[in-house]
Amino acid sequence: MKKPIIEFTDFTFKYRSQAKPTLNQINLTIYEGEKILIVGASGSGKSTIGHCINGLVPFSYRGDISGSLKINGKDTRNEGIFALSKMVGTVLQDPDGQFIGLSVGEDIAFTLENDCVSQPDMRARVDEVAKMVDMDNYLSHSLHQLSGGQKQRVSLGGVMVDDVDILLFDEPLANLDPATGKHAIELIDQIHQEWNKTIVIIEHRLEDVLHRHVDRIIVVRDGLIVGDSIPNELLASSILEDCSIREPLYIRALKFAGCKISPDTNPEHINKMKLDLYKDKLLHWYESTNERVQAPISAPVLQLENIDFGYQPNRPILHNISFSIEKGEMVSIVGKNGAGKSTLTKVICGFEQPTSGRILLEGRDLTNDTIKERSLTIGMVMQNPNHMISKHMIYDEVALGLVVRGLPDEEIKQRVEEALRICGLLPYRNWPISALSFGQKKRVTIASILVLKPQVLILDEPTAGQDFRHYTEIMEFLVKLNNLGMTIIMITHDMHLMLEYTPRAIVIADGKKIADALSADILTDYTIIEQANLKETSLFELAIRAGVKNPRDFVHRFISYEKGVGRKWE
Amino acid sequence: MGVEMLSYIDKKSPIHSLTGATKLLCFIMWSFAAMLTYDTRILLLLFMLSVTIFVVSKIKLRDVSFVLLFILIFLLINNIAIYLFSPQEGVKIYGSEHILFSFTERYNITLEQLFYQMNVTLKYFTVIPAALLFIVTTHPSEFAASLNKIGVSYRIAFSVSLALRYIPDIQRDYRNIALAQQARGLDMSKKEKLPTRIKNASSIILPLILSSLDRIEVISNVMELRGFGKNKKRTWYSERPFNRKDYIALFFVGVLLILSLFVTFQNGDRFYNPFS
């Protein structure tokens, strides 16, 4: 039997600021060399488990503990955060936020500096670690110049420098484009195999983590551990659905087809799964579902014609981008980190002036309109709601845009209440914003744009950092808006979102538009996937392996079927 | 937008190649020399030297033009205030009165007052290039190490350098927030009247504080998890050893300081008096 390295025994923890315990009587043992995935919805307590392991609980976030947590056989309460940091290395979710040094070498060296290692020894060790994470050619590079994947490597190097036994990853996939996320999972796997570390990953994007094998999956709900099993067993059970964690899409499709998933068929990996048992049912389901219905073409509402943009003349960020958005459409803009997606929205909103090209709204040229004038017709919701909220009360925040326009109080009241009602926030209108959850804040920011009655709504990463329940909530809300006739454009890294909610997607790579097609077609086209750092959908793989004649059509049918199911829920 | 005030400007110059600690010590001695004396001859010498050093550093005036302008406006206000509150200061100091013309008995223009205020201005001009140079030619990585080297606690040294490093990030946040607010119709451009603009600009403050607090929580957790504050001391990855250039620079500025003190205090008066 392997040696236990992390042992929670009847462990309960209550944050000082909260009335109820966040973790309740937890029993969990992790053995040396294991690779564990912890999943759970926001607020389930999964991040708190991570904080307990690395010592932020109870040393940074104070609270009451009962029961015990032992790491390497030592009770964490008697150890202190510094002693724990010698055993547990933590990689947080946002690589940008966690860099302390300015250059790669300096950041990796941070722990060594704090340990008073002499400069020659430090440099030798940094070189060694940089080789381990394959960043040895970048030591003097500034962290800002690195790609998302390289940043992940550096933050990993920064904790590996200490030769810790346990590596803890807190939502490593947030903020990464799909292909980079895939590489991150591969990198973690490689470290696990080569250096025999114990790995704990906290993440709610289950399908993406399962890209590589994990030994066990722990499911957390409401401070309790409700699942602790190998991936195959978990996927065969109904625990995921109950805890509102998104199942892998291929499992979902199989369940739609009425298959009962058996753990023996290796459902963990779509490319190794035994499908013989399910093939007939799946093909039958494929035949019986409807063809997709093509939406009728209406009038274009937003048109971009040959847009060029760059901060410096010889370094274009956007190059010759043209597309047209129809009225009432819901469209995704996707592409790798830094491809120019955000810049594109800035150009549309008038934050930046294109160097050439025209933007038309219902046929009218917007080129000479100011930001304020454009804001009457184009609403922009930023990724981080904290970047937008500037009032204490919900009502005031939503009313702000109308108040500055000097509308009469009566009209303001009526419009604000309507927007709040659409967003499901009307009962809270006199609440302070600080009392809201992240997802609710997001809806406040959407409401504050909706009151301005724009014709087009642009959202930057509307679901980033949201668990499946909040994700569904926000997306269903947007669908509702869309059904009311609002045209919606979303920038996203989430391939599920793109596939399920936006029939059409525009793909940007290196400042150029490389595709403008149906989402399902894009996510089954390997050339585009590779060029734009996207990720193929597992549905396609499932369809091919099950011998569906037209796998692409299978994806289309899955989406329309799922939408039908979604409507039944309402 | 490339406006990054007071950040490191990478050039190859003798000034850049000095270690951060040397530059800091030189800057402190230089400021002492300039602050203690009102001797016009010394100030003129220091002023010419600081202009020379500025040229040697290859930093272009336009790189620092924004900050410079800001300081100059402040200097102007300072000069006006001195005159308003103490128009007879020069007469008191130099013990004579050469009236050029007068508005009232108290508020007249004397050669002495002009000379005194010129000295004050000269002090600014002596210290400003040195201060700017220290900031823009010291690599931020080395900044904390050099503060620590001259005896400042490493916690404070690190906080200061972290704060400086976040200036560009906060500027970026500020810009994003400002744009988001403008997109809701809060006009901050010149089309709007000034009071409204100020009111609208204030709507940026709360989001900016909130997002900065988020940033602080993350970074302080990370630092703690990676052992910051464990020991009384720490070492620095990017610290550079002193070499000959550093000793020469320190010696040179040290001599200047002594010379300035000697000239200033030899006749028991901090002021050089051309009127007697």
UniProtKB/TrEMBL annotation, chain A:
Membrane-protein topology: Peripheral membrane protein
Keywords: ATP-binding, Cell membrane, Membrane, Nucleotide-binding, Repeat, Translocase, Transport
Domain (ABC transporter) ranges: 6-247, 302-535
Record localization: Cell membrane
The keyword Translocase appears for this protein: yes
PROSITE patterns, alphabetized: ABC_TRANSPORTER_1, ABC_TRANSPORTER_2
Record-linked SUPFAM superfamilies: P-loop containing nucleoside triphosphate hydrolases (SSF52540)
CDD domains listed in its UniProt record: ABC_cobalt_CbiO_domain1
Keyword Zinc set for record: no
One Gene Ontology MF term: ATP binding
Chief location of this protein within or outside the cell: membrane
Function noted in UniProt: Probably part of an ABC transporter complex. Responsible for energy coupling to the transport system.
Similarity remark: Belongs to the ABC transporter superfamily.
Name of the protein this chain belongs to: ABC transporter ATP-binding protein
Organism (species): Robertmurraya mangrovi
UniProtKB/TrEMBL annotation, chain B:
InterPro entries linked to this entry: ABC/ECF_trnsptr_transmembrane (IPR003339)
Pfam families, A to Z: CbiQ
Subcellular location: Membrane
Sequence intervals crossing the membrane: 15-36, 42-59, 66-85, 114-136, 247-265
UniProt keywords, alphabetically: Membrane, Transmembrane, Transmembrane helix
Membrane topology term: Multi-pass membrane protein
Protein name, UniProt field: Energy-coupling factor transporter transmembrane component T
